[in-house]
Specification:
The protein has 666 residues and is an alpha+beta fold. It has 19 helices and 23 strands. It has a six-stranded antiparallel β-sheet with strand order 7-6-11-10-9-8, sandwiched between helices. Strands 2-1-5-4-3 form a five-stranded antiparallel β-sheet, sandwiched between helices. The chain is elongated, with a radius of gyration of 47 Å. The model has no long low-confidence stretch (mean pLDDT 82).
Amino acid sequence: MVMVDETVLADPDRLGAVRTAKHALPALPLAPDALARLAARLLEAPEAQLTLVDREGVLLAGGQGPPDADIARWAVSAGEAVQRADPPSFLAVPVLDGAGLPVGALAVLDPAARRWTGENARILTELTALASPGASASFLASLIDNLPVGVIACDADGDIAVVNRPVRELIGLPADAAPRLYPTRATGALFDAGGRAVPWRESPIQRAARGERVDTDLVVRVAGRRERIITATAQPILDDDGRRLGAVAVAREVTALRRAERFRDCHRAVEEALNVAGSAAEAAPGVLAALGTTLGWPAAELWLADEDSGELSVGGRWCAPGRGLEEVLTFTPIKGSGITGRVWATGRPIWVPDIADSASLRTPLERRRAAACLRAGLRTVLAVPVRDADTVLGVLTCYGDAPEPHEDLLALLLDGVAARIGVYVALRRAEALARQLSRAKDDFIALVSHEMRTPLTSIVASASMLGDEQSGLDEESRAMVDAVHRNATSLRAVVDTLLDLAGLDSGHVALRTEEVDLAQIVDAALTAARPHAVANGVRLRHERDEPLPMVGDPHRLRQVVDDLLANAIKYSPRGGDVEIELVERAGMAELTVADHGIGTPAEERDRVFDRFYRASNVRHQGIAGKGLGLSLARAIVDLHGGTIRLSGHPPHGTTVLIRLPISPRP
């Protein structure tokens, strides 16, 4: 009577070994059919069979069939040699895998009665070593196990046969039961890009087992471990005749790559949020939402230092919807204590991979805060300084809901975002300071000018009256009065120019535009400047007969031309030429005034348009001036929609080019 142990036959580990053997037997150095023939020849039996005992039945791997299922099942159940001497007689021994699990049997059959000896059993047992999947497949199994990518394989029925070490480590599987446990564990660990759980039937290996070719990204989430992103490629395994033997899937971790790609999108989102915002507080919601989404972290905070007190206050906070973290993250940073407070004090980033690890928490306060975070499901914290050079402007703090080991790439990318925020904050503060200084300067100039104009007008009028010949002053007194009149008049001109500039810059003084002939304005200015030019021994060269009509303020345009001619004459040597050219080019009026004077250093040509700035070579030569003429000229040209530029005039001298639109701006 054949004794079959169903418990042994149904053992899951044994069935997993059988699935592995199915794939390993065809790759044996000695083919299964050749091994069966060798067994029959050595034991002088008419027939031999090499079989595998699976859950559904017995598979003939080598020899002639049909397979004798009872003999194979009996040998596997017994785990040792079994025999029968009565006809039809047989001798069978179990075939073991590398772990000693019985996967099938090698049997010799004889229709006649026969006594089988111990030597016969020994020979047959030694032959099974050639059929042991573990013996021939150990190198292949080790190779697959040590690949740097994850490998999963299944048979034609979709049963998992191979799960290599990277996959086991990824989702936490024991080596001895990985094929059996993988379907259950993968079902709860694999998610698509939209965060939806992937059912087992829709996993890449199962889709490939049905004949599909799959190439997709998956998110792996295992409790207590950080989230991973993998790219899975799966396809059917076909034989030479195109029959489907099973499927194989290869998984590569691409967490860092995908994070880098998402950080590029994050940087763009951060840049957009900063570009449209008027302050860091306005930009914070968009910046922090982009960060939280990119990292897959549930909360992020931006703390900014007050410019006056230096104290940190929250510039913005973002929490994933529905988590209730707004009620948890109510910590106020204390300098030198807590994660944010330590970064604030040291200016160095801090990464806490797992806040449940008290070793990274220094004080009772930090441990209390950590306990609150843990109750809310937060497990990791990364805080980086927001700085401008060596100045800490704030702290960017992010929270994760899974332990996150330190990754240089993630820290570097987050530090880059913090640096961009730092540049933005510093720029906004500099712009605000510049506006304040500009307003203060304008207010000061306007105040001083207004306060000076009235007394200066009185002084000029009084000096004029005193200087009258009828006043009865002697010659020395009249000279003193003339000096007062001359200097007061000069000072009033400065005040008038300053008030002009303040009015034009603020918009309180508007242009009075009309149809004008710019050529006529230039001619009138030249006529007025010639006596001064003759007195200084300077020739004015200008040739233009035809008019150049345009829309502009004739009074203001005349101011500009007068100032340019006065400067050119002042800085030209005796016997020198000042060349004036007026042309129309591409819808623009171009006025050029060039002299052969001392010129302006190239590095200072833009600064001479600033109020009160005078070129260094002019100051060193003691040439009088106020540094306001070009400032006023630029203000007037700007209001006309034009440009003014200073350049050299080889071999020495200065060229001023003004370009004005002929038609008014719409």
